[in-house]
Amino acid sequence: MDRIRADVDSRPPVPARTHDRPYRGDDDFWRVRGLLLETYPITPVDFNWEIRRWDGQRFYREHQDPAGDGRIHLWEDEGGRLIGAVHPEDAGDAFLELHPDHRHIEEEMIAWAEQHLAVTVEEGARRQLDVFAFDYDVPRRRILTRRGFERLPEGAVTRRLRLGAGLIPASQLADGYGMRTTCPGVGDAQRIADLLNAAFDRTVHNAAEYQAFTTTSPSFRHDLDLVAEASDGSFAAYAGVTYDSVNRRGIFEPVCTDPRHRRQGLARALMLEGVRRVRALGAVDVYVATGETNPANELYDSVGFTEAYTGGSWRRVW
């Protein structure tokens, strides 16, 4: 009898029944956000999006809700509990937010993305989709390989700084600059837009999008929104910090410096002040993400980010 019971108990568990459905709007936005908060302590580093990135998809576009365009899809268990979501960030890509107890639905989620989020490319009207996977994520990389995806050369890296009782170096700005937090209103919003455009060589940023995020996003705090101000009143560097109080972690996004003010330690000073502020709030670690070959990695090393987790987009063309 004991032998029979042992044989039965050693069988692999039968996956729980699940069902999928379209994303329906505001209630589902908060449910996905709750899933991100819930799964952070039980998943590998950056396995799912952090809340600032999810909030940005909604509130950085003047409160646009993507519910009506069919680009977000959800999975629930038998009891109606949310266990997974697929969504894009840009055209032709897909990101998976997934409870780790339900990785058996991951291939189904990718198959849905292939059907609904792929874009048509010029060569012979073929379809194309990019899916992100960390290099540590062997199960996802196996699924992607089996479905015909190949990893693209350019990678990304998430860095983590564990906070303890150690001293944080003082934030010292070069002569001619002052540090402060941003203020509500069009003036600072326009300065931030100008800085982002200069730092990232863009033209798309404007005051309205920044105001939309700062006035509607639940993760934004002006006391964690740090700038280095030049003597002429323009913003020379910027470090936006989010504090996830549920998981006691800080998130830097974005971090940038106007090209005219680089190599003066401005961004480093802002980040050190940001680390100091979130630790005072109770943070136990801090995160920042960037491109794998981005020179900003030298900055993050100098601040003390000692852990690095690489990954990249995998592409299928068919």
Strand content: 25-35%
> What is the overall silhouette?
globular
Biggest sheet layout: 13 strands, mixed
Mean pLDDT: 93
Weakly predicted, low-confidence segments: 3-8
> Could you estimate the helical fraction of the residues in percent?
25-40%
Order of helices and strands: HEHHEEEHEEHEEHHEEEHEHE
- Whole-angstrom Rg: 22 Å
CATH topology heading of the largest domain: Aminopeptidase
Count the beta strands. 13
Work out the count of structural domains. Answer: 2
Terminal CA distance reads 53 Å
How would you describe this structure in keywords?
disordered N terminus, Aminopeptidase, 31% helix, 9 helices, 318 residues, alpha+beta, 13-stranded mixed β-sheet
Structural commentary:
This protein folds into two domains: 13-155, Gcn5-related N-acetyltransferase (GNAT) (Aminopeptidase), CATH 3.40.630; 164-283, Gcn5-related N-acetyltransferase (GNAT) (Aminopeptidase), CATH 3.40.630.30. The termini are far apart. Strands 1, 2, 3, 4, 5, 6, 7, 8, 9, 10, 11, 12 and 13 form a 13-stranded mixed beta sheet that branches. It has nine helices and 13 strands. With 318 residues, it is an alpha+beta fold. The protein has helices at residues 2-9, 26-39, 51-59, 106-116, 138-146, 186-199, 207-216, 266-281, 296-303; strands at residues 18-22, 73-77, 82-87, 93-98, 119-120, 127-134, 150-162, 177-181, 225-230, 235-244, 249-257, 285-291, 307-317. The longest helix is centred in the C-terminal third of the chain and has 16 residues, at 266-281. Residues 3-8 have low confidence and may be disordered.
